[in-house]
Amino acid sequence: MFSKFLKLKPEKQEQIINAALKVFSRESYKQASTDEIVNAAGISKGALFHYFRSKKDLYLFLYDYVTKVLTDEYFGSIDLSERDILLRLQQMCLLKLSLLKKHPDMMNFAAKAFVEEDDEIKGNIMEKNKEITAKGYSNFQDNIDTSKLREDVDDQMALNIIRWTFEGYANKEQAALRNHPMDEVLFDKWISEINGYIEIIRKCLYKGGNEP
Amino acid sequence: MFSKFLKLKPEKQEQIINAALKVFSRESYKQASTDEIVNAAGISKGALFHYFRSKKDLYLFLYDYVTKVLTDEYFGSIDLSERDILLRLQQMCLLKLSLLKKHPDMMNFAAKAFVEEDDEIKGNIMEKNKEITAKGYSNFQDNIDTSKLREDVDDQMALNIIRWTFEGYANKEQAALRNHPMDEVLFDKWISEINGYIEIIRKCLYKGGNEP
Amino acid sequence: MFSKFLKLKPEKQEQIINAALKVFSRESYKQASTDEIVNAAGISKGALFHYFRSKKDLYLFLYDYVTKVLTDEYFGSIDLSERDILLRLQQMCLLKLSLLKKHPDMMNFAAKAFVEEDDEIKGNIMEKNKEITAKGYSNFQDNIDTSKLREDVDDQMALNIIRWTFEGYANKEQAALRNHPMDEVLFDKWISEINGYIEIIRKCLYKGGNEP
Amino acid sequence: MFSKFLKLKPEKQEQIINAALKVFSRESYKQASTDEIVNAAGISKGALFHYFRSKKDLYLFLYDYVTKVLTDEYFGSIDLSERDILLRLQQMCLLKLSLLKKHPDMMNFAAKAFVEEDDEIKGNIMEKNKEITAKGYSNFQDNIDTSKLREDVDDQMALNIIRWTFEGYANKEQAALRNHPMDEVLFDKWISEINGYIEIIRKCLYKGGNEP
DNA sequence: TATGAATGAGGATTCATTCAT
DNA sequence: TATGAATGAATCCTCATTCAT
After folding, report:
1. Are the beta carbons of A209 and A199 closer than 8 angstroms?
2. Nearest CB neighbour to D200, from listed C157, C165, C168
3. Across all residues in chain D, what is the average pLDDT?
4. Which pLDDT does position A210 carry in this prediction?
5. The CATH number of the domain where A24 resides is what?
6. How far apart are CA D212 and CA D203, in angstroms?
7. Is the CB of D199 under 7 A from strand E?
8. Position C119 confidence tier, pLDDT thresholds 50, 70, 90
9. Is residue B87 part of a domain?
10. F20 C1' – B52 CA distance, angstroms?
11. Strand E contacts (CB < 7 A) among B residues 46-105?
């Protein structure tokens, strides 16, 4: 499967993948047009269906491809030995925001694919997600040292609050990303704001934080 | 406009609205098929276009309808004089979860419509959203008494953490909703868990909370 | 046939006929919409199909009606004992132009119906035309006194030139009619111009005209 | 535009053009059915919309095509240096009748298009007509030598009578064309009859014609 | 008799997929 | 292997006609 595509020169593969990602990251599965994809990729209609047998196969190939690239970059960059949840989430949050800027089409494609509800592919995507989960990419709270958390607060609830805070921040910034260029200044802002939240959480939910 | 539809017997109106909401809450604007809608509603193709002149008009009618029902039920039930953010968000969160169970199709439709990007309707939806915003439905943090918050923590950041906590909780429960029936037990669970988070936040982010 | 329609009060009949004529004189048979007709007539959809069984029947009724009114007014006003072709065509031409202004919808309807090629009605219209012709409305050149025409010119050819001249003039003026109001001034212009052509023809094609 | 169509084999282009012309020369723009066109052309529905993006585009393409063919054949065959109006109109009339027999669908299409009132295309057709007019195809009476006309008759009125005579003759013959085959005999009849009219007009409206 | 809601076949257009070259 | 012309099912929408009230 996909062997015909994989025999192409890497540059051509990339060119086709990028074109398809661009289209699929903007439109839903059904609305995305193969015409637009072949035009953006600079190949013929027949070629696309020669490499991939169908639109569905192309989509699922892209899903695997994107999943692999993103998980590699994501989990390859995260220090899973960091047992302090704040430092781990700081990494994760910055990494996610960086990936959004580095691979916007992939990230948007992944986000769209995650909620895609077209019957033609929904089943396959859910299956693939199960496989990914099964591979056991460590969760944000695996192997976390909870001993630093306040004792008068339920650990899991504290972890949830911390996670939701970082998720909320990442979402807020993601929405802003569309309008602003990504540069050193923006990255520094992220670091400084994230550290602000870390400080608050450390103060409030960790042992030995200041008295309110 | 829509006068022909509004002359129908209420039961029939409801039957058509429900059918359309079911389809539009599952599929995007473009993918949603009028065939499926008329089949679900048990009416003929011609009838649909007799009541609403076009698919677009039907969609925008539904948007207005849903917006009205949800804002009425939502803002009609919220006590905006409550100046303690925790109590206000407790109300909002419970209400949102209740609405999700009471009107799942409406809530999903509203969520989908909010991010709908089809050129045919995007402009209209944005316009309607402006009108809604202009009507001044108060924001979650309008008129909030921030004097209760810890003084050694930035107010806005504290409010963000609190909001994201409730949003995170609501999202988590929303995902679970599809599989469980909504009943007294579930509602009690929500109250108890939300109160758990409230207690933690009060302890950590409010003046005079316990020392960690 | 049409008995139900003919039982209506004359004013209502007229109102319906006028509305239908307005629509059919603007649009072709197929494109003319029964919706537009009932709206213009201020009656319900059902009523129209109650009076006339179908769009086709309505159209054919109108054709008969218009044919009758126009031939009555036309042949009722023409003095067929006038044996001078110029005076007869002068009458006919002025009458046609007057009718165009007096009954524009009828004239346009008749003109459109004459070239209507929709299979649903073409046969019926052609049949009706045969009947009309069979009734023997006298032709423009019936009973004409050709003795006044130059002897060195073929009578039939001379009559053709004369007829085509008047037809050409009438067509030219008809096109101009849409933009100008019909009034005394316009009528006088017609008379004066037509007399100009008559004078030329008398001079050129009649015995004893001036030498060129 | 139309590049896809123009890449087809000439025979296929012709086959499609002829099918479309046949349908559009019989029905109005709106009533003409693309189904009928594709059946007549022996191609699939999709193919038609592959070559031309829409029914409108097909129609406007045909208009340009027909206009070009007809004006080329028409103005390519007319000797505009002929300053005698009778000889010029003799050419024009014969040419028009020949074209009617050679390209009946094109001529009928052109005639229908000229009075087409459908909003979807009316504007475009009028624009194209302006362009054509602007190209300055000389009018029937441009550069005419009026010095040969009788001095006791208004020049413009004389020219009108002459034009209307030839138009009338062409119209009469056009109506007869549908039933008769076009052959040498018919063409000879036209020449002889037209020459008959020319002789009469020369005798009556030109200087030095015989005394009536 | 009159109403207007309802029907469903028909029309233009789109698009994934096939296939001759 | 690559091309892009061709297919036809599916989609939104229209409108003469019917029928319950």
Report:
1. no
2. C157
3. 91
4. 65
5. 1.10.357.10
6. 9
7. no
8. confident
9. yes
10. 22
11. 46-47, 49-51
